[in-house]
Each structure stands twice: as C-alpha cells, then as structure tokens.
Amino acid sequence: SPIMEELATFHDHAFMAMLLISSLVLYALLSTLTTKLTNTNITDAQEMETIWTILPAIILILIALPSLRILYLTDEINNPSFTIKSIGHQWYWTYEYTDYGGLIFNSYMLPPLFLNPGDLRLLEVDNRVVLPIEAPVRMMITSQDVLHSWAIPTLGLKTDAVPGRLNQTVFTA
Fold first, then answer.
1. Where are the transmembrane segments (predicted)?
2. Domains with residue ranges and CATH for the chain
3. What is the pTM for the complete model shown?
C-alpha cells in the first residue's frame, strides 16, 4: 500500500540518520582513545557547545517531520468505497460488509491438521476477507470480549480492538 511504502522510506531515512550519528560517535571515541595530543584551551569552547546543542535538535526535526507526515496520512479519510466492520471474539473474527445488505460471516483459524504445506500457522483462516484493489476501504474495528489486535502487516496496518470502543482505519490496497 502507499502507506507501507511511506513507512519503509521513513525507516530507511531514520536508519541513515542513526548510522551517520553512530559513525560520528565511533570516530570521536576512537580519535579520543588513540591521540596523545591534549589541548588545554578547551575549557572555553562555547562555539563547540553551541554546535553540539543545535545539531541534535536539527537532526530530531529532520526525523520528526517525515514521521508526522506519515502519521497524518494514516489518519486521513478520503471517501471510502465501502465499509467493513470487524468484531473480535476470543477465538475468531466476525466481519460485516455493511454496504452490501449486511453480509456477515465468521473467520476461524485453521487447526494445524488442516494446514497445507506452505501455510502459515496461526494466520490461515477458513473464510478470508476479500478486499478490492485501489479502492479506499474503511475498517470499523471493535471487540466483544477482550482486547484484540487487527493487523495486515503488508499494508502497514495495526489497530486495537477494544470492547465498547469503535476504532476506525482507512486503507487502500
């Protein structure tokens, strides 16, 4: 999904910042340990103190701005094509396609005896949710009994299902 692409790009961006900072700290540490030169005039180095105070603030801003952009993109609602309500139960999920005459079905995990080679244990179900491609879908997520987590990792989605609370997420596959 476009959101997952943004998340992957942000991960690469943050990783490069972390790699550059770690390299700089490693270089400073190694140069401090290996050099025999000492400078007695470093007690009044206000320019250096200013640099090592402002530089981390700039780096934090360069990391925070893309993060906030992605946060607002994930919360954006753009006229969804249809709505699916997902209700978490202790051992299964109930899905309701509310825009199509109240189509309701349950989705149970498959026991290990019914798995085919290559199926993922604890992820395979008997009835899968069918989603359209390139159409915005609104998911209304709640729970009947305990806390659950509704997730599609490849789309970059993870929303908690809380009893008595209706959470919502919008995505495009």
1. 12-30, 50-72
2. 2-75 (1.10.287.90), 82-172 (2.60.40.420)
3. 0.67
Share of the chain residues as helix, strand and coil, in percent rounded to the nearest 5:
40, 25, 30
> b vs e for 38-54, b when ≥16 Cβ sit within 10 Å of the residue's Cβ?
eeeeeeeeeeeeeeeee
What span, in angstroms and rounded, lies between the C-alpha atoms of 144 and 135? 28
Residue 97 tokens, joined: 């396609």
Cα distance between residue 26 and residue 12, in whole Å: 21
- Dihedral over Cα of 30, 32, 35, 36: its sign: negative
Cα(17)–Cα(3) distance, integer angstroms? 21
Beta bridge partners of 125: 109
139 touches 127 (CB < 8 A): no
- The string of pLDDT tens digits covering residues 76-97 is 777 888 899 999 998 899 999 9
| Beta partners for residue 151, in sequence order | 158
Residue that wins the pLDDT comparison between 36 and 105: 105
pLDDT in tens, 18-59: 998 899 889 888 887 887 766 656 656 677 778 888 988 898
